[in-house]
Each structure stands twice: as structure tokens, then as C-alpha cells.
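Please predict the structure of the following assembly.
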Amino acid sequence: MADKSLIQPRTLKGFRDFPPGAMIPREQLVDAAKRVYRSYGFAPIDTPALEYTEVLLGKGGAESDKQMYRFEDHGGRDVGLRFDLTVPFARFAAKHIGELGTPFKRYHVGPVWRGENTQRGRYREFLQCDFDTIGTSSAVSDVESALVIHDLFRALGFERFTIRINDRRLLTGVLEHLGLVERQTDVLRALDKLAKIGAEKVAAELVEAAGASEQQAAAVLAFASLEGDPAALLDQAAPMVGASEVGRAGVDGLGALFEAVAAAGTDPARFALDPSIARGLDYYTGTIYETFLDDLPGIGSCCSGGRYDDLAGLYTKQHLPGVGASLGVDRLLAAMEELGLTDGAAAPCPVFLPMLDEGKEQEYLALAGELRRAGVGVELYPEARKLGAQLKYADRRGFRFAVIAGGREFDAGTVQVKDLASKESREVPREDVAAAVSGARG
Amino acid sequence: MADKSLIQPRTLKGFRDFPPGAMIPREQLVDAAKRVYRSYGFAPIDTPALEYTEVLLGKGGAESDKQMYRFEDHGGRDVGLRFDLTVPFARFAAKHIGELGTPFKRYHVGPVWRGENTQRGRYREFLQCDFDTIGTSSAVSDVESALVIHDLFRALGFERFTIRINDRRLLTGVLEHLGLVERQTDVLRALDKLAKIGAEKVAAELVEAAGASEQQAAAVLAFASLEGDPAALLDQAAPMVGASEVGRAGVDGLGALFEAVAAAGTDPARFALDPSIARGLDYYTGTIYETFLDDLPGIGSCCSGGRYDDLAGLYTKQHLPGVGASLGVDRLLAAMEELGLTDGAAAPCPVFLPMLDEGKEQEYLALAGELRRAGVGVELYPEARKLGAQLKYADRRGFRFAVIAGGREFDAGTVQVKDLASKESREVPREDVAAAVSGARG
């Protein structure tokens, strides 16, 4: 029964608390992503959570408009909470690129907010984790984007994943060759449904909505259904683009990209050419990436992106082509948990130090200080209680080791090191504790 | 002249963009803080940016009320952006502590929002970085809070800093002894102005606003003005609390605390007892911490906190005493820059790899991959351009080394390693590059 004088400690629907058990894997994932991004020269930026509505909706359509948290601030300004990191990056680039210079490589990790219908299992606040290279059209940046995705998934511990790659120019080439290029948007809209509604219904839509003949529809579907290793697939695709220049550029670009990711030392089996992926309608103009976990294909793409012609045309005349991708943090965490890839230890440090003897607080504090200076994180229980109760606390928190010391050990200059998983204990000299728990995360 | 068809890429007053030059030191500071927090067993949590207004204003006074960004969401709920991390932590604790158990040690790093007057040099969006231990009244947690602050400042590279410590119980004891304890709030309000308006005016306010006699005012000021090393100062303070039990507990507690921080292996000169610090009116009930940089005293306290009797009484009947502190991120970054403590290298990785030969993209990608697998972060310039132009880019970005290779080096299996600060180059075998740039941040 609720006490009426208390305020109910509830959260808003679609918003989440993250207790340590949920937050520690999130921090580990974000840290791993940042390490990979930095190892390619991507630098961090941040932008405000709140921006002028005019700035945020410049790029958004009706969907963003309805979903955005929008209100009037204390100064009567029409403001909103950012609903992605792409629009703020475009605004940021327009404002700062003159001073920063190009090419400019940034990563950005931060929350975004959308007042979506939560019944679809969506959250109204979620973390985005994006990286982009802007100010260059070099194909090297497309290759590096694929390599960053590869290194990310490896760093997170995934073994079996496939980065599916396509190039918009390929389909444009096919449509040019078929004389359907003016209907490209309608064709993309139909093809986007291929996995969901099947080839027959897509063919019907291509005829009805995109004005294709039955032969043209069949040719488009034959292209989108191509399978095989990249080189063989491109051999089949090449005649389908005929003499289309943009189509040939797509064929050559993809050929070079798959060669380059292999030359960079990756396992080529992790990269696939998939002519069926389209990703939205107008934004991407070149390479497209989607990343699937081979063991959990139903979860959908966990990292997606591609190349675009111009990032910030709404805010600046400076032409800023770019390429990048966005990590699906919530999906990846769910997958890592399902596949047992999250570090089992939920504790923020490896060692638990129970306090056994009242009156010896200073000796416990000194021992804990010694361990920390040796690089070993340690939580000291703040009150002298029975060992059993303290070890229950340690189990619940997920510590890997308990370092146990009482009057006898302090006198002898030793401690008991107990492995909390195997329950095995051994006595070691105090100066050897760090070595005895080494290999444990700091 | 602005193009009228473009949207002006402006940000809201009081809100900031963080380009890499500002963001890299921020990330380093936050990472260092998290490492120290974790090394004491503090675990990360996060809470929503948006909460029910009722939840946020439960603890807030009129000040928070006016400053809070508050609006109606899509579902007609009265919601607001959090204005600190303490209120959300109280709400979080009330909701989850049953499942988490006590003691519970958490850190929380996240943005908060206040629609403050920006003319006082305040930001409307800023990062907070808090740690707290709740569910225990053990003095060991007070000692550890001081040690965490100490280790934090050391981890950030500060040598000369002073953690000023006081205990509310000391002043309470003095006021009990003087028969002024019922006017404690008025006394605190007057004492809080000591540094700003001086002893004479505080004495007048004690008389006028707190109803003290001139003798009582002089005694309060004599206490607040005590100086000296902690043991000597406590010897002088002890008679001032007379027979007050709470006052004696304060004297004993502080004595034990200063002994314990020294026993933990710190330099005692970094901890001072300062009877004049009060920190607000009602929240803190025991230990109080403020941290000053000896070289930049004017910047104010860069890490403040203390012990409180009950965190979450507005939301739960469970009594949750605690102790913690909050890092002043913006102040510390300003200080680190002024004192030259920020890592000079603004680049996110140590090595820059210029691209000299068009057509050799794959060899450059392979070399970059080799370096990354050896643990060395490297940015590959994506386009073949003149070396001079690329090195200018590298200088601007703040890389420490350039690894230079063209056709000759690829054939010979060597590279030129150029130190971008000293401008010295040397040729090394390709397999030795990682060693040649070792010591460089990954």
C-alpha cells in the first residue's frame, strides 16, 4: 500500500533506468566503440541536447516533426530535443568546418529522444553512437567505414557476423539500362519490401507503382536477387548495367572495396555483396552497409550506414560529401547478452575486501590503498559484519575475488585470496596480492 | 552575407558545441574519473533526462522550479529535464534499492539542464559527475569519499590541491554549547558569507538575523576562524563544543578521518580542516568536502560534497543515509588548460599516415591495419596529395608521429617515422613501427 505522503518514484513510459547490471555492459560497449573509432583517427564531438526547432526540423520530414519533444523555453524560443545525431552534426559541420578543415572524421555518442509509440517496443530515449568522414569523396573512406564496422564487432567479441554491402550506383545503373531511372524512388520503395512481402508482390508493385513493364520488373528483381561471392556477383551484375556510366562506377567501386577490405587483413567471409539492400529513399548515394549477426539474423541490422552526397546543404553552401554509420546500441547489447558475450562480472572492480575486525578500519583502508596503487580495484565493505553476510553481498555484486584479512593476517603480513567462482582460497603474502588476482579487470 | 534560403546553423544561448579540441580533454577527464570511481567499487548507473515534474520538484525549492525546462509531452504529461543528478538518484534509489541492496555505491555522469541567467557565466547545459555511497552511516565511507577526491585529482595530474574538510556536527556542538542551536539555519546563512563579506559584517548579521549576543557572535567567529593542522585545530575546537554530544562526535570523527586518510597512504598536507565551510543550509549533516587548487584558488571548489542523513525520504520510507561528492567538470577543464595539464596532443590517435602514391591505396590500408593490430591507432589520409599539404593537416590535428611510405619504402619493407614535434625522421623496418612510436597513446 502506497503511503499517500510519498511521491511515487515512477519513470516516464519509454524511458529507462540503468542499474549497474545494465549500465556496466553499456559502458563497456561504448568504450570499445570509442577505442575503435579513435584507432582510425575519428575524434569525439558533442552538441547540445536542445536546439532551435527550425534547425532540427530543417532536414526532418513529417515523421520527425510529430515525434520530436518540442516546447517553448524560458525566453519564448521554439526549441526541441534532438531526435538523431545526424541533423545536429550537419548543423555543427556548417558552423565549424571552416575552422576544422576537411577531411573531418568525427564520432558522437549521446542520447536522442523521440516521442514514439512505445507499443512497437521502441524507447523514447536511446543512445546513438555514430561515426562519419566528411569532406572527401575518396573510396578509401568507404573502405575504412567497412573496416571500422568489422573491428567494432570483433572488439565486442562477435565471431560470426556479416557486413552486407551494396552501392546505390549499381541499381541506378540497372535502371538507366532499363530506362526506368526516373522512377528510381518508386523502385526503391518497392524493393525495400523484398524481404518482407516477397518477389511476387514486389514485382506487382514495380508494375503498378513504378510503371515498369513485367519484363522490366523481372529484370530489376533478377538483379536484386543476385547472390554469390562479390567477384562472381559483380561479373553477373556488369551486363545488367549495360553502358551506364554510374552503373559501371558502382561495379568497379564495389570490386575495389571488397579487394581492399581483404588487403587490410580481414577475413573476406565477413563481407558480403547484397544487391537487395537499399536503406531508405533519398539520403544515400553510394556505398550502403548493413551488419547482421549470423547467429541472430532476426534481430536485424546492428550497424548501418552509407555514403551521401552532401551532409549540410540546408545550413551551408559548402559541399560536404561523406560516409559513415551508426551502431545499434540496444540491439547489440541484447545480442551480446543472448550470446553470452557480456563480461559475466557485474562488479565495477575485481576485488572485494570484507571488514572483519572493528577498530582495524585504518589497516583495511591501508590494504585497499596498497591494492589500488598496484593497479587493482577493490571495494572495502564499510562495516565490520559476519564474513558470511559480507560474502553474500560480494556474490550478489559479482566480484571475482575476495581478499580476506583479520587480526591474524595483519600480524602475519598475509591475506587469504578467495576465488568467488571456484570458492577456492589460498594464503599469500600481502605484497603478492596484486599478482594473485592479476588478469582481473582493473 | 547570409544566403536567405539557408537555415542559420546557430545554437541556443548557454548551450555549447564541443569540437574535438574541447571534447578530447573532456573525455579524458571523464574516463579518469570513472577509473577512480570503479577502483573503489562505485558502479555506473543512468537515469532518464526527462522525468515527471512532480518527481523532479519534490526536492527542489523555488529556484529549481523556475530554472527547470518544463513542458507537456505528447501524452499530456507534465515533464521536465533533470536539473541535477541528486534528485534522479533519490528517485532511482527509492525504486530499486530493495533489489540492489545496501550499501550501494554508484557513480553517474550525465548532462543536466537549467534555464539560468547566462550572464553570470553559467551554462544551461552542463555535465555532472557524481559519486555516492548510500545505505551506511559508517565513517569508513566518509574516509573513502575523501580518498576518492584525492585519487581523482592525482589521476588528472594535479600536484598542488587541498581537500578542505569540515563536519557539520562541530558547528552544531558549538551552537549547542552557546545555546544558539535553534538558530543554526540563520547562523549557517551568515557564516556562508564569511569569505565574501568578512568577519565584521558576518558578526553584525549573526546579531541581527540570528539573534546572537555580541559575545556569542564573537565565539562563533572565533570557531569559524580556527586554523592550523587538524590535530592542533581539534584540540582548540574541543573546548568550544563543551559537553555537546554531537559536537564531541564531530571532534572525534574528524580526528579519526584525518588519521585514516594518512594511514591510507596519502600526503596529509593535501587534507585540511576548515571550520568555516558550511555548504548550503539543510542537506548536509556530517562531513563536508570542498577541493581547491592551490595554484588557482580563485576558481573556487572543484569537487564538493558531504554526508547527509537521508537521501530519498520524499519517495520512500526506507532510511538511506549517505555520503558523496560531485566533480566540477567545467571548472576542472578550465584549470587543467590554464595549468597545462591537458594532453597537448589533440588528435584521437598518435600516428598519421599520409597517402603519397595514387593506386597504392591497398598497400596503405594494409600498413594501417598492421599498425592497428599492433595496438597503434593511425589515421590514413584518404586522398593522394602533396606530402607538405598532408603534413600541414597532421600538424593542425595534433598528431605526434607521421609514418611516411611511398613506392620506395613499400618495396624496401621500411617506413620513415617522423616525430612531428621535433621534425626528426628516421627510417625503420616496417615491423618495427609500433616499437618506434611506442609510448604514444593508443
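The first strand of chain B starts at residue 43 and ends at 44. Chain B has a mean pLDDT of 93.
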